[in-house]
C-alpha cells in the first residue's frame, strides 16, 4: 500500500513535469537542437520566431553565424518603430533549394501580418550539419555606416489658420485645395472591377485628399461606391501627382455603364520634409518567380521614417495608367540609408507595361 | 342628408388623414431652367428637392408640436434662429399651428459659381390652421409665396433664409 | 395607387375644412373688419385701429414673433418696433365672439449689412473669369433686402491701378466675375454699400511652370542637378514647396526624387553608374532632358 502510494505520486509528478516541459516549448526546443534535416531546423527556428522567443531562437543558430543577439532580434523583429515591430509571423513556407551531406540552402517565405495587410519576407537560409544536428546559419545583415553628422532641415512647412466658428456666414475663409483627376481607367479583373488613374494637386498649398468612385448602371442608378483607402498618397504637396486605385470586388465590368469620380481635398498642415529618393528601380522576377518592381528607398532627411509605403503606377505605350500596386516596407528608413523594396506586378500587366512611376508615402511617429 | 353624413364622416376621419399626411414628405417640384450663373447638377437638384421638403416637414412638426429640436437638421443661420424663436413664443402664448402641405412649385433663381448659395422662390399651396389651445382661431387655405436662400452643409443643404412675400413678387 | 391615395386625402381635407368654416360661421356673431397697413418697414412701429366694444384677444403671428394679449375693442392697438423686425408676412387676429383676421407685409429696412463671398482664395494669374464676387444685401435686422440696391466693388491689385465697378442687386444678390491679373500677389476686393464695407483678400499665385530647365554638374561619382528659377509663363516665380520631380535612367534602372522648390529652385543629387539620361518635371509640365557621362 505504502509503496503503491509512492509509485503513484512519483508517476504523477513525472507526468506533471512532462506537461510543463511540453508547455514551455520543450518539444520545439528538442526539435531545434536535434533537427535531423535542414527543413526541420528552419521550421523549428520559425516556430521560435513566431513565439517571439528570440533568445531561444538565437541560441539554436549555428555558431558560425556572425551575428549577435541584438542584431539578430532587430533583423527579425524590426526596430525603430518600423512596420515589422507591429507585425507578427503568421506562416513560414519552407522549400529546400539544394543540399549536400553537410550543407543545404532552404528558401523560407515568411508571411507577416500587420495592420496594413500581410507582408512577405523571402530569404534563402544556409543550413549546416554538425554531427547529427542541422542548424541555421543566420546571415549578418548589411548595415550601412552613415557617419555622424548634422543635417539641417530648412524645407517649407505649412500651417493653417481657418475661420473662427463665431464669425458670421459670409466672412472670409481659406478655400480647400484644388485637385484634379488627370486620368481614370476602368479595368476588368477576373473577380472585380478596378479603377486606376492619377490625381494632381494643382494648388499652391498641401492637400489631404481621398478619391471615391461610383459605378453607375445603364439607367444611371448607382451600382456600387468605393474609395481609394490606402491606395493613394493622401497628402499631396503643391503640383504633386499621386496614382490611385479603387477596387470593386465581385463586380463584373459588363454591369457598369459609366463611372462617377469624386476627389475631395482638405487643407491640412504639412511639411515638405522628408524627401525620399527612389533609386535603381527595375522590373525583375523575384525568388518566387513573380514579377516585381524593385528598387531602393533613401531617406534624404535627418529623421527616421518609421513606416514607408511605395505606390507604383504602370503605363502602357500610350501613357495610359494600366495598373497601380503598392507595398509597405517593414523596415524603418533611417537617414541616408538605402532600404530595398519590391512591389508585385500581375503577369498580364507586366507583359504590356512600358513605363512606371513610383512615389513614397511616409509615416513617422513624431512629426516636427 | 348625404352631404351632412359625408361631413360627419369626414370630420371623424380628418385627424387620421392629417396624421398620415404628416408622415410623408411634402411634394416639391423644382424648375431650374435657365439657372445662372452656375447651372445645377442633377445630384444637386435632387438634394435641393429632398432637403427643402425635409425643411417644410420639420417646420410643420415644430409649429404643431411647439418643439424645435428637429429644426437644426434642416435650417441654419437666420432662418433657424427665427423659427426657434417663433416656436418658443407661440408655445408661451398657448398657440400652435397646423400646416397641411399641398405641395410646392419651386423655381431656382440664382446659384453662385462656387456653389455656396442658391436662391429660390416657392409657390406653396398650404392650409394653415392656427389654434389657441384647442380652439381654432384661423384657417387659411391659399397659395403662399416664399423667397428662400439655401446653403450647402457637410452632407446636406440647409435653409438659411425663408421669407414669405406677397404673391406679386417673382 | 399612391396618387389616388393622395387625391383621397386631399378630398377629405377639403370637405373637412368646409365643415370647419361652416362651424365657425353658423351661429356666431359677425366679426368686424381689421384695418392694417398693406406693408410696413422692418423695425417701424405702427398702430391698428379696432371697432366695436368689449374685450377681445389680440394676436400677431409673424415669422419669428408671436403676440397674444387682451385688448379693448374700439381702441388703437400699438405695434412696437421690436415686434416687426423680421421681414415677411404677418397675420393679425382679433377674437371676441368671432375672429377677424388680416395680413400685412413687413419689408426689409434700408440696406445696412453685406455678406460678401470672394472665390477662390487662391487663383492662378492671367486666368479669365477666374474670380467670383457675390454679395448679399441685408438690413440691420439681417433681412434680405429684395429691393434693388447699388453695390460698389473696389478692386486693388498688388501692383497697378485699382478699379471700381457698380452693380445693382437683384432680389438681394449682386455678383460679378473678373479676370486675375498677370502678377502674383494679394488682391483686395471691397464690397461697399453706404457705410457698410466688406474687404476680402485673395492670393494670385503663379500658374503652371513654363520653360522648366535644369543643369547637371558632375561631382565625382555623382551629378548635382539644379533647376533655373522655376517660373510660370508670365515670369512669376512658383512658390517654395512646389514639388519638382527628377528622374534618372541608367543601367541600374530608374531613379526618381520628388523634391520641393527652395528659394525658387529645386535641387537634388544622383549617384552615377555609367551613362545616364535625366529628365525633370513639375506637375504635368515636362522640362528639359540631359545626358550625363556622355555629352551635356
Short description:
The complex is a heterotrimer of chains A (368), B (170) and C (296). Chain A is α+β, with helices and mostly antiparallel strands and 368 residues long.
Strand percentage of chain C: over 45%
Low-pLDDT parts of chain A are: none
Query: Please, what is the average pLDDT of chain A?
Result: 88
Radius of gyration of chain A: 27 Å
Task: Provide the succession of SSEs of chain A.
Answer: HHHHHEEEEEEEEEEEEEEEEEEHE
Structure, explained:
- The complex is a heterotrimer of chains A (368), B (170) and C (296).
- Chain A is an alpha+beta fold.
- Chain A contains six helices and 19 strands.
- Chain A has helices at 2-23, 26-33, 38-50, 54-59, 69-77, 347-352, and strands at 88-99, 103-114, 117-130, 133-137, 157-158, 179-189, 192-201, 207-216, 222-227, 235-236, 241-249, 258-267, 270-271, 276-285, 291-299, 307-315, 321-329, 338-344, 355-363.
- In chain A, the strands form six sheets. Chain A has a four-stranded antiparallel beta sheet with strand order 1-2-3-4. In chain A, strands 8, 9, 10 and 12 form a four-stranded antiparallel beta sheet that branches.
- In chain A, helix 2 (26-33) packs antiparallel against helix 3 (38-50).
- Chain A starts with a helix and ends in a 5-residue tail after the last strand.
- Chain B has 170 residues and is an alpha/beta fold.
- Chain B has helices spanning 2-23, 42-65, 77-92, and strands at 28-31, 36-37, 95-111, 118-132, 135-152, 157-165.
- In chain B, strands 1, 2, 3, 4, 5 and 6 form a six-stranded mixed beta sheet that branches.
- Helices cover 8% and strands 50% of the residues of chain C.
- Chain C has one helix and 22 strands.
- A five-stranded mixed beta sheet of chain C has the order 1-7-6-3-4, with no helix packed on it. A five-stranded mixed beta sheet of chain C has the order 9-15-14-11-12, with no helix packed on it. Chain C has a four-stranded antiparallel beta sheet with strand order 19-18-21-22, with no helix packed on it.
- Residues 23-31 of chain C have low confidence and may be disordered.
- Chains A and C meet through strand 14 and strand 19 of A and strand 8, strand 15, strand 19 and strand 20 of C.
- Strand 14 of chain A pairs antiparallel with strand 19 (253-260) of chain C.
